[in-house]
Amino acid sequence: MTVYVTLCAIAALAMLIAFINSKIGHLQPTIAITAGALLLSLLIVVAGNQNWFYLRDVAGTYLGQLNFEDFLLKGMLGFLLFAGGLGIKLPNLEDQKWEIASLALAATLISTLFIGVALYGLFALLQIPIDFVYCLLFGALISPTDPIAVLAIVKKLDAPKRIATQIEGESLFNDGFGLVLFVTLFTVAFDNQAPTVAGVAGLFLQEAGGGILYGLVLGWVFHLLISATDDHSMELLLTLGIPTGGYVLADAIHVSGPLAMVVSGIMIGNWTRHTGFSAESQRNLDHFWELVDEFLNSVLFLLIGMVMLQYQFHHEDWILMVIAIPVVLAGRYLSVKACYLGFRRFRHYNPLSERILTWGGLRGGLALAMAMSVPAGVMVVPQKGIDIKEIILVMTYSVVVFSILVQGSSITGMIQSAKAQQSDSSD
Fold first, then answer.
1. d(CA 228, CA 222)
2. Is 382 exposed, middle or buried (0-12, 13-18, 19+ CB in 10 A)?
3. At what angle do helices 161-191 and 132-142 cross, to 10 degrees?
4. Which of 46, 134, 312, 322 is spaced 20 to 30 Å from 256 by Cα?
5. How confident is the model over 151-156, as a mean pLDDT?
6. How far, in whole angstroms, is CA 141 from its chain's centroid?
7. DSSP letters spanning 73-88
8. Domains, in order of start, for the chain
9. How far apart are CA 190 and CA 133, in angstroms?
10. Looking at residue 373, what DSSP letter applies?
11. Which of 94, 148, 99 is nearest to 296 (CA)?
12. Secondary element (H or E) of residue 38
């Protein structure tokens, strides 16, 4: 079975789960697909352990042909972030620019440090020898809220405007800063290179600053191209050029492709939408990209549920999976609370803002992709064959599953409470 056939089979399963959910479950599509994927994974594991057609080994082999890191980080992510950027309303973003910047930068850094320190202490209590840099590495990859997971759920809910804008804006921008932190710590952990202030600053300017600047140029170029034609099919086709050729070029010139997709998506959605598209294209733009977004999300979250078939869980893994969830939630709450201590000095917010931002800070495929990029072979418990990649991956997996299934399915009630409590002066 080729990689193409594997992807086609996964896509067909994802669409089947989504269809059944639309007729029976009526859950959020992201939650339904993740739950369905986990159920399929469990059935495959049980069938494999019972020696039924060796399904677990077969599934693990075929999924192993996929480079999940490249498939998401250098493939699907560009489409999903561009689609998310298209839906951002610039006037709302302008009103929340300082809050979004603080959450994307300060909250990510605070959460990374807290998770790193907390895990290092817990590992010491459990007598699991692990270097502090690996704890920080996990903190860096799990602290950014995943734009794919967040936007797939939040966009379906009628949340108070300020809260919705902060959740969406933060999730679209904090991945750039998180990736910079991850790459820096990755270099320290595995390349034995000590970081310098100049090196970190240069990396941040190149990746984040360069990505934003490149996104502005890319958006402007495609604005001119779209404005130069009145063929509505060509106008929609040109938008595909941004997350394809534009994303590949960003990787080639070593700037942040994710940030470039968000910026160009915002430009096309707020500028070109009103001045460059024909009337028919304006009506079809959102429908077209919603379809692309729904399909890719279906494939992504089915992959998340099945990718763990490649790993054999140890006793220590189950303990770490349970520990990781409260540690990450605590880091998220403290980082959001720290930002809001400053926010509330200047503006009134909904009383449940911090709780919703904490509980709505979902993680997804982006965190798993970074976890899977960690090289194998750095042993932590040699006698059991447990290496640092296994530890980071199982903790990431548990947080992702919990955030999507538990947080994602229960945040609706919290948002309804916030809407009931919001005053006339809050949005």
1. 10
2. exposed
3. 150
4. 134
5. 65
6. 10
7. IIIIHHHHHHHHHHT-
8. 68-421 (1.20.1530.20)
9. 10
10. T
11. 148
12. helix 29-49
